[in-house]
Amino acid sequence: MRHGGQILVDHLKAYGVTRVFSVPGESFLAALDGLYASGIENVVCRHEGGAAMMAEAAGKLTGQPGICFVTRGPGATNASAGVHVARQDSTPMILFVGQIDRSHRDREAFQEVDYRAMFGPLAKWAAEVDDIARLPEYISRAFHIATSGRPGPVVLALPEDMLSSRADVADLPPPAPVPPAVSAAQVQAVTDMLATAERPLLVVGGSLWSAEAAADLQRFAESWGLPVAVSFRRQGHFDNRHPAYAGDLGVGMNPALGRRLQDCDLLIALGCRISDSMTRSYELMTPAAPGRRIIHIHPDADELGRVWRPDLGIAVPAAQMAAALAAAPSADTKARWQAWTAAARAEYEAWQTPRPTPGAVQMEQVIRWLSENLPEDAVLTNGAGNYAAFLHRYFRFKGWATQAAPTSGSMGYGFPAAVSASLLSPGRVVVCLAGDGCFQMTLNEMSTAVQHGATPIVVVANNGHYGTIRMHQERHYPGRTSGTILANPDFAALARAYGGHGETVTETAGFAEAFARARASGLPAVIELRLDPEALTASATLSEIRAAAEAAAR
What is each CA distance from 362 to 240, 281, 348, 358, 459, in whole angstroms? Predict the structure, then answer.
């Protein structure tokens, strides 16, 4: 006879879970008891949003469901931000939520929430376990759903009395491996269409990628002479140094790459959803009239034709298709596409040339230094904000699992993700890029990092305002600043107060030595960059944006 918490933890161990993220609550004491002496590390966080984002980052970097435990009511609502990231980023994740006693339902009991209704539109699946005898069934189903088709988050609510009750039930084994599903006919259909294209563009995205898939994709691109772009914040899917790499189609994209998307006559979308960020809010392509042939390869059959009508739709995992295409014989297309592919690469290289920004600390030079000096396997994380445009534009990602960033555009994500990445790979260099507004949403997890031995280095771009919103504000209501100015702490001193390492950089030349000291400290570290508020974006200053808006209004 085991209580529900022990049954749950025994399944987690059998399914290969070695770490969970949590904020404790009295609603799941039995699960905490099950974790005791289980060998599974329980990373105790300071806010449920941070815990859920750490779990999401773990799922993103490993391909296995990240696991999070939170309590009922406010604990679950706080964690919903991380569930939203997992949903939009197609990340496998399972959130376990402590729930009120079953006998107290429908009385608006203390912290009562209907989690099926709350998470139904947000998660891939949301359920509540009413019968302890069915707990193994629900756990097994949660792992299958989180990783099948288009991966995503699952929410399981665990009533307190169910979890603390006891039962003699058999465990269910882990999900069985799924054999490759790509057929010769599917590969032939892709290559037949590709062979007739004059201006093809391959765009790679989605989740459950791997280093092997990246290598397969590289062989495929080389054998056919294809240009390769990536979707928003999936730059780690393909070595950015490769001559076939053309850049990223996302927020702040290279305008030349956007035009190339418009000009292509065949778009191969491998694993990605062809989102609004990839098409600049559907301006470069519209679902009503795509204007080119589309091959859409996606693991979820329900995604094919949901927004875009494909000329060829194939429901298989992207990594499996990459392997099959790498092994397929190529047509004689290199000469025909040589100028097209070379031009795409030249446009990417030109976009990499730093555009000087005002101020003593220049963000573009900091990012270029990081790109040229970090180890190739360093992990870069970020949340949302204009500072991230510098990272996406000037940093060259060299390999898989080196990028953890929210395609959902969630502020505050970068630092919890960096803590998670550092715990996943101790000794590996992990760098979080964060804005002053972004960092302050989750910087309390510095305490979590210190407690559990994570050592990320946070580079804080401090320009004194919510930069992205200020940019839009100046474009639409120039000179009428409202709600975007920030009063900031001394970030370096705050890091030291938590027991970490802190540095403040006021000139670009001082960054390299500050980074060396932060890395040598062996502690979670913060390097605050004091930026000129004029340095609003990677492409234009605050004054330039305002002047353009005022001129357009005249």
Answer: 23, 30, 21, 7, 13
Read off the pLDDT of residues 215-235 as tens digits, 9 standing for 90 and up.
999 999 999 999 999 999 999
For 477, the 3-state DSSP assignment is coil
Q: Which of 334, 303, 332 is nearest to 317 (CA)?
A: 303
**DSSP 8-class letter at 219:** H
Q: How many other β-carbons are positioned within 10 Å of the β-carbon of residue 523? A: 22
- State both tokens at 110: 């203390």
Strands (E), 250-306: 266-270, 293-297
Residue ranges and CATH numbers for the domains of the chain are: 2-167 (3.40.50.970), 184-350 (3.40.50.1220), 363-553 (3.40.50.970)
| DSSP states of 131-193 | -GGGHHHHHHHHHHHHHSSS--EEEEEEEHHHHHSEE--PPPPPPPPPPP---HHHHHHHHHH
Q: Work out the average pLDDT over 294-310.
A: 96
pTM above 0.85? yes
Q: Distance between CA 549 and CA 554 in Å, rounded?
A: 9
pLDDT digits (tens, 9 = 90+) for 99-132: 988 888 888 888 888 999 999 999 999 999 999 9
